[in-house]
Design a protein that fits this description.
Ribosomal_Su5_D2-typ_SF, binds zinc ion, alpha/beta, about 35% helix, four-stranded mixed beta sheet, YifB family Mg chelatase-like AAA ATPase
Length: about 500
């Protein structure tokens, strides 16, 4: 008979919050009531916990047991509280001492046999524990490496409930194996491998420097995928804060590769065109999982053969791209995941996609127009750079001049980003994010003489008002890359060319 409490962590999206699992054991008919807004998984946990306790050799209190999770207003999902609940029940009803767990946070699902099973989102959970001043975090062995990414907090593993029971009795110790050697990181694909493709290379560099969304149109084999895969390699390295946030998102999705450490490079996500909306923006049953756009947070979301994606799937990406976050509405409330990704679209020029290009096209009349109209929706409207990529001629492959490496281009990108961040502060961090009001405002408005090519294009109906802003943003990026304070006429011409894909 008695009362006890053990701390654990609940996740709200990608943010952890320390919660208290309290248990009260009182005389009465044997029963277990769990309260504190538990979801279905938590209710199911009751039988699992009881079995795990029995199979750990401990005695389940045959009395009236009440388990409550605090604070009540925090939504609690999943099975990560199993171990804390079992310990609280044993402490309240079976004299389990808790002095060694007073400042501890306990994470982990319980198997029926009493083993601790790994849970998703351990990185944000341990971060929350650390911020709350926990002196010890106990995790399942499968989560130990990830938990150790958080500095300055003592992390130990327990393979089973019996080990924690032994630990608090002073007869067993928790596990602290030496860290595994870091897995060899595969070097990102290098731009030096892309021969020829001046225009495509330039488009990728501009996209990186200005954080512009990019669309590439061209026949199969023109190198669109190669170029897209090399964009993350020329983006600036993530800051410490971004790195933790990105790693936490992958952790919550259960998509963190073992031994990879913190994700420090901009991630690349390339979902297949058959991917469901849930796979793209997040969702699924139980805990809403982050989708590809959140896993591409601070990195690149690459949609190859984007015309093949369902219109509903492309539409679902619009709002997250606009706001930099995904809001997943569920019965019990809303889960928010960051989703500030850079979009790269690639498409064939027409459905038949003959390698020879337009001359070899065998599409029936109308098919090409229908195909393009599927692309020219509101999503493409947000894409600053829209370029045609043509197949490389053999001559380019024999060029004696070696192509520039990603490192060389990345250095230019960093300088351009710094110039832009300095200029637009506090309104934006890159040219791609500058609000139209700031772009056209008195301070940064470009002179009429410089904008003249855009005015002409507008008069001819080749450029919309929105397109004019997008082209102006790209002109700033051209200037930043070349180290000019303000775009000149040539910069505007180049920016215009980077939107002039044929057939539009
Ligand atoms: Zn065709």
């Amino acid at each position: 008979m008695g009362y006890a409490k053990i701390r654990s962590v609940a996740l709200q999206g990608v943010v952890g919050q320390v919660i208290v699992v309290e248990a009260d054991v009182a005389p009465g008919l044997p029963s277990l009531v769990v309260s504190g807004l538990p979801d279905a998984a938590l209710t199911e946990a009751r039988d699992r916990i009881r079995a795990a306790v029995h199979n750990s050799g401990a005695t389940w209190p045959q009395q009236r047991i009440t388990v409550n999770l605090l604070p009540a207003h925090v939504r609690k999902h999943g099975s990560g509280f199993d171990t804390a609940m079992a310990l609280a029940v044993l402490a309240a009803g079976a004299n389990l001492p808790t002095s060694l767990l007073v400042d501890a946070v306990v994470l982990g699902e319980l198997g029926l046999d009493g083993t601790l099973r790994p849970v998703r989102g351990v990185l944000p959970a341990v971060l929350a524990a650390s911020r709350a001043g926990a002196g010890l975090v106990v995790v399942p062995p499968g989560n130990l490496e990830e938990a150790r990414l958080v500095p300055d907090v003592r992390v130990r593993a327990a393979d089973c409930l019996g080990r924690i029971i032994g630990f608090v009795h002073g007869t067993e110790s928790l596990l602290d194996p030496p860290p595994a050697p870091p897995a060899a990181q595969r070097a990102p694909a290098d731009l030096a491998d892309v021969l020829g493709q001046e225009r495509g290379r330039r488009a990728v560099e501009l996209a990186a420097a200005g954080r512009h969304h990019l669309a590439m149109f061209g026949p199969p084999g023109a190198g669109k995928t190669m170029l897209a895969q090399r964009l993350p390699g020329i983006l600036p390295e993530l800051t410490e804060e971004e790195s933790i946030e990105v790693t936490a998102l992958h952790s919550v999705a259960g998509a963190l590769p073992p031994g990879g450490g913190l994700i420090r490079r901009a991630p690349l996500q390339a979902p297949h065109h058959t991917a469901s909306i849930a796979a793209l923006v997040g969702g699924g049953s139980g805990i809403a999982k982050p989708g590809a756009i959140s896993l591409a947070h601070q990195g690149v979301l690459f949609l190859d053969e984007c015309a093949e994606f369902a219109a509903s799937a492309l539409n679902a990406l619009r709002e997250p791209l606009e706001h930099g976050e995904v809001r997943l509405r569920r019965v019990h409330g809303e889960t928010v995941y960051p989703a500030n990704a850079q979009l790269v679209l690639a498409a064939n020029p027409c459905p038949c996609a003959r390698p020879g290009g337009d001359a070899m096209c065998q599409c029936p009349p109308g098919a090409r127009i229908r195909y393009r109209s599927r692309l020219s929706g509101p999503l493409l409207d947000r894409v600053d750079l829209q370029v045609d990529v043509v197949a490389v001629r053999s001559a380019a492959l024999f060029d004696t001049e070696p192509a520039e490496s990603s490192a060389t281009v990345a250095a230019r990108v960093v300088r351009a980003r710094q110039a832009a961040a300095h200029r637009w502060a506090p309104h934006a961090r890159s040219n791609g994010d500058v609000p139209a009001t700031v772009l056209r405002g008195r301070r940064f408005r470009l002179p009429r003489t410089v904008l003249q090519p855009l005015a002409t294009a507008m008069d001819r109906g080749q450029l919309s008002a929105r397109g004019l802003d997008r082209t102006t943003r790209v002109a700033w990026t051209v200037a930043d890359l070349d180290g000019r304070d303000v775009p000149v006429l040539d910069d505007v011409y180049e920016a215009l060319e980077m939107r002039s894909r044929s057939g539009r």
